[in-house]
Amino acid sequence: MAKKKATKKKTAKRKKPEPKLAKAPEAERRRAARIYKKLQAKYPDAHCALIHSNPFELVVATALSAQCTDVLVNKVTPGIFAKLPTPQLMAKADLATIESLVNRVNFWRNKAKNLKGMAELLVEKHDGVVPQTMEELIELPGVARKTANVVLGNAFNINHGVVVDTHVGRIAKRLGFTKHDDPKKIERDLMALFPKKNWCMLSHLLIYHGRAVCKARHALCYDDDLCKRYCSNANMIG
Ligand code: SF4
After folding, report:
1. CA dist 26 → 32, 150, 175, 226, 236 (Å)
2. Which atom of ligand 1 is nearest to the CA of 231?
3. What residues flank ligand 1, with Cβ below 6 Å?
4. How many Cβ atoms from other residues are within 10 Å of residue 91's Cβ?
5. Using one digit for the tens of pLDDT, what is the confidence trace for 103-160?
6. d(Cα 51, Cα 93) in Å, to the nearest integer?
7. pTM, whole model, 2 decimals?
């Protein structure tokens, strides 16, 4: 018997909506606000460490920064931005050319492939303009939620979420903002604790604190006023 032909049209996959965000208890939010104020006073010039002059450059720099220091990315990107300054030029470039420009960062083969794919999709689908929504950004090769949050917050001033890198995750836990290790859960906890308008800056402040004081190893707990006042680890880690 001939197999019945499938007549149903392929339906587009529905995207799961983000779960509704409940605010953290008021006392916790007040404590978080006090710590935020202290961090702001301590790091008044906190900003995105990746050098860029437009949204496309920031997508490129952030995609390259995965498991790589910002310092190294900032050494590599001037060469890329000089040779392939637009999505159109990057999309047309040979993969070998892109590889030769990024081969000082780790996972460079994969990152070069993603950069080319990202530029191609930007040209095909967005006329070479970096989109301003999480949904569209994470469709780009090499762009996951963290990169999309960096781009939305720093290139477009859109606080869609909180960037959770290793510094942010570590310090959020040490300061008692979260009990989780999973970046997605940490991000939800931070979003519930801090007002939306502060999400992008919060991540810069925590990163600055992570680099200056709350280092992964040998955190300088004893020397810091904020730590002594707000961190229960202040007398334990040193
Ligand atoms: S007390 Fe130590 S662990 Fe706590 S935030 Fe400060 S440096 Fe980090």
Report:
1. 10, 28, 17, 21, 28
2. 4
3. 171, 174-175, 213-214, 219-221, 224, 227, 231, 233-234, 237
4. 19
5. 999 999 999 999 999 999 999 999 999 999 999 999 999 999 999 999 999 999 999 9
6. 22
7. 0.89
CATH 1.10.340.30 fits 55-156, yes or no: yes
Please, where in the chain does CATH 1.10.340.30 lie? 55-156
Provide the CB-side half-sphere exposure for 134 (13 A, CA). 14
Angle CA 191–196–198, to nearest 5: 100
Residue nearest to atom 2 of ligand 1 (CA): 221
Q: Which fold has domain 26-46+162-230?
A: Endonuclease Iii, domain 2 (1.10.1670)
How far apart are the CA of 217 and the centre of ligand 1, in A?
11
